[in-house]
Structures are given as structure tokens and as C-alpha cells.
Amino acid sequence: MRQEWFEMQAERRRPYAMQTWIPLRAFEGTREGHIAQLGYQEDVSCAVSVAVTAAHRAAVEDVEWGHSGLSNTQGAYAFEDGRYKTAEAFEIEDGVDVGIHLVLAQYNPIGDPVWYLNQDLVLALALIEENHRWIRPDENYAVVAKRTFHPDGSIGGIHIRTDVLRDYLCARGMALRLLTYRERTTYEATADHIAWPGGRIEVPLADGRFEGSVTRVLPGGDPEGATVAVHHVWRTDVDVEADVPVMGPETDEGTDYTHHRFTRTGPVIHRISGQSWRREWIEPAIRSPRVRGDHEPSATTFIVNAAGDRQNADELKDEDIGLWLWFEPTIVTDLLALRGGKLEWYTHDTGGLQGEPGYSSIHFGINEAGLINVYARDVARLSEWHRRIWAGRNLYPNGRLSAELGRAHVEGRVADTAAPEARTAEALIAIDAAAQAIWGFPVFRPHNIQDRLLASVHRFRATNRDSLLELAKDMARLTADRVDADALQAFAPITPELKGTGSLKSLERALAKHEGAVQARALMGPLAGIYDLRVGAAHLPGSQISDAFGLVGIDPAATPYDQAVQLLTTLATTLEAIAASIRASAPAAVASSALTSTPASS
Description:
With about 600 residues, the chain is an alpha+beta fold. Helix content is about 30%, strand content about 25%. The protein contains 20 helices and 26 strands. The strands form seven sheets. A ten-stranded antiparallel sheet has the order 9-10-11-12-1-2-13-18-15-14. Strands 22-23-24-25-21-26 form a six-stranded antiparallel sheet, with helices on both faces. A two-stranded antiparallel ribbon has the order 3-4. A hairpin with a 5-residue loop joins β11 (about 140-150) and β12 (about 155-160). α12 (about 420-440) packs across α20 (about 590-595), α14 (about 465-480) crosses α17 (about 515-535) and α17 packs antiparallel against α19 (about 560-585). The longest helix is centred in the C-terminal third of the chain and has 25 residues, at about 560-585.
């Protein structure tokens, strides 16, 4: 390897405080080849740390790498005089706590040490551990701390995001003392490419020191010309063949020994090594918005009127602000893509949107232009990262304020309407409840993706023709694909006038027992049209898709958003009609029971 690689000048100039991740405790690196043999190469990076208050900074200023209280495992100790040392405490002398460990390494008598992130830090930052990573739900489940591992599965390090660590340190009035050690070593046939005078170099650093060395060694690591002394001592006064041997005190007369020396020989190779020791302070942040709740000025602004004027989120964070904002409807899919994303419906054109855990749903409305309206304060109260998502979809006002949202906010009256998305979910439950009570079995087979499908069947998915067809595909998966054709065919066998073994045909025959073939076909027509659109997403030509549009009541000239509403309304109306038909197929007593019984989930 080149001399520059061993000297690590770029790494020596790079402060950890300016990096994204801080190693709270780490013994990491790479190794190739067999140690102390020609061709061996290693690059190891190690770190230990302790958090201290301002009053104890001087006490740890001169603590060096290798201090036993930092490099060894930690433990709690109870002393005879009544003192007790907690596991997190760092002591330079007994009884004097000068800092705390943010990573605790527990001695494990049956395996490798177990490393823990300090529980106070975990609770203060509201972290959740998942798959050896600590996530922060309040920041969109961002990973803020993580374990690393060696190839053999043993622990390598625990690192924390710098900004999160500094927030915690600020809240506790502490700074972090970070001690690091870096070593790069190879075993090579020659060291002619290393220009260190006499094979050694020492460089003082502002925060530590660097040393480089070249040593002539033998394979195995012994220095060239190393002499080995071998001593063998044994007892001569013990009868080991006796039934019960007894070994008394050792005496000169009862012992003997031999010794000899030899010099190791073999081909000479060169051990080339660069080592860097550094000490650094990671200072606390100026503010602690996460732990202490300090206010951090918002950098997010929103358009608040038709003139395009903008106001800062802090200015809008007022219950009496009296302003509404306009957003692209794609904000819904943006939020649903988040881990905590959720959409619920209150009326035909209003509902609740949630994208951040710990915050109540944001009441939204849909206006005449298909845009999303939200009261300004409801967005302004969110976390900064969440505001930025909303700000990315913020628009100039277009179309009047959502009529249903305005009625709820200004007049305190809720519109007597229902969203087709909500009606669909209720109708699916009603169909199964009626069929179970009257036919003796539910129409739909339960499936582990039904809840996900229900959540995905909404109008905001349709932004063009292709996405509208994808919406129809999920509608078909929610309905036709879950119909229990076997149970329906046993209930209503195939007849000459109603042939076919498909799921929709099977349900049509069951309905025809009460409705008759013509009416049953009319009831099932829209579901058949939705199924045709599902096939059309990949196969049908445009003319046949237009026919399917007519079957499900879609206006070809409407916007994709309006077409989605039309499609969803057709689905909900059709499912409600099927539920009513099943209820009407029973004798009065059974139908009454089906109407009053608690619906079972579809």
C-alpha cells in the first residue's frame, strides 16, 4: 500500500462533529489474509465516549484512549460502606462520578458482550428499536441510531446521528468526550515505498497524535532475530500413581527443571503500520426541540391568498388565523405513502388525513376544482418535516373553498352525505352479514390483504387513464376475486339460462333465485364492467374500455378525479343493491334477523 494510505491525512483532518454519524462506541474495521503473514491487511477504527457536564469537563480532558473505565465492559457495584455505582456512571476515582456512558457494554459469560443504548437517551428522544436500529416515529420513523456488526455477527459499534445527539446533550447540559483510535497495518515483502526516516514517524496533532512504523518481522509476527527462552519445571516428590496422591509444599529438593534458548529464523517480511489517536469534544446544540421542546423557527411558508403572498408556519400557528390553504390532491398519496399515513371519510367531500403519529387527523375538504382545502392552523401545528411535505403540494387558490368543509368550519353543520369509499366498506360488510344470516355462508372469502385493498380504493389514486384502470383492478380484487364461487355454486347450481363458473356468474345465479335472471344480470352488470376495466389495464383496446366505461357510468370526457368518483359511486351503489337484494330474498322473520344482527367483517 502507498505511504499516504498509512498516514491517513484526510481522516486526521476530519472532525467527527462535522460528520453525520457519531460512533458512541465502536470496534470496527476490515481484515484480509492471515494475521502476521505476507499479504495481511487491516484497517480498524475504534471509539469510546463519555458524556459529561461542564463542571466535570476538566476531569476528563486528559483521559487517554485505553482507560479501563471506557474500554472495558460496564457494571454496577455495591460497596461495603454503602456506596453504590450505577452501571452508566463513569468514574476516574472511586466514588466520584464525572460522566455517563451513552452505550453500556455488558459482560456476557456465555458469549460476546451485549451493548445497550442508554435507556434515558432512548426514552428522552422517544426512540423505538427495530432490527438493531433505533427509529424516531416523531420524525417520520427516521433511523437516528444503529448497531453495526462484524461479518461473524458480533457487535461492531453503535452510532447516533449527530444532530439528534447534540439535541440530547443540550437538554442535559452535557458535552460528549470522544476518544478514537485508527490503525492501518499490512505485512509486505518490502518497505522501500515508505519514506519515514529510520522507519518511524511521530506527528503531534491538535487533538491527538499520529505514529507510523516499519518493523522487520518473521512470519507469525516475531521481530527479526528474536530469541526465545524455554523453561520446563516439574515436581519429583509426588507419587501420581498412588490411590490418593498428595502434593505437599514445593521445595528445591522436590523439583527439577530444564531450560534452553533458540533464535527464530525464517524469511523476513515488513510490518508497516500507521496509528492515530484523537480526542474530541462533541458540543451540545444551541436548542433542544426534540427533548426539551425548544421552539425552532420554521423555515416553511405557505401561499395564503390569490395574490401569492406567503406566511411562515409560525405565523399561521394560531387557532384564530381565519385562513384556509389549497393543495394538490396528490398530497393524499404523499401522506398515505408514509408509514403512519391514514385516510378516513366524514362526508362525501370531507375527511381526515394523518401522516404523523401523535397528531390528530387533519380535517380536509375537496373543492369544486378537485383540490384539497385545509385550515391553515391545522397544517402549521405539525412538525417541520411534515409541514415541508404539505408545502411541496401548496397551490394558489383555485376554485372556491370546499362547500362541505366551509359549512363544518363556519356554520358548525356536517353535510348529510357519505363518501363512496366509506359506503363501499360498509356495503361489503352488509352483504356478508345478510348472506350469512339468510343463505348460511358469507359471499366473500376473508383475505389478509382486504384491509390494504380497502385503504387503497380511493379517488385520489386516479391522476390519468392508467391509474384509473389500476384503481379498477384493485376494486375487482376486492370484489370479484374474493367471491366464494364454490359455496355459491353449491347454493345455486349452473342452469342452462345462467351458465358460467366464474365468481361473478356464481353470485348472479344466487341472486337470480329471488330476482330472476334479467334483474340479477342488471344488478351484476357494473361489477362485470369493473372486471372488464381490470382486464383493460393490460389487454383491452380503447373501444372496449369505452364500452366498459358506459357499463359502470363513467363520463369519458370527465377529469380522472371525477371519473374515479363516478367509478367508486357505481361500486358502492351496486354493492348496496346486492345487500338489499339478499335481504329481500328471505322470509320476513329471517330478513328481520339479518337486518338487526351485528355485521361480520368481510
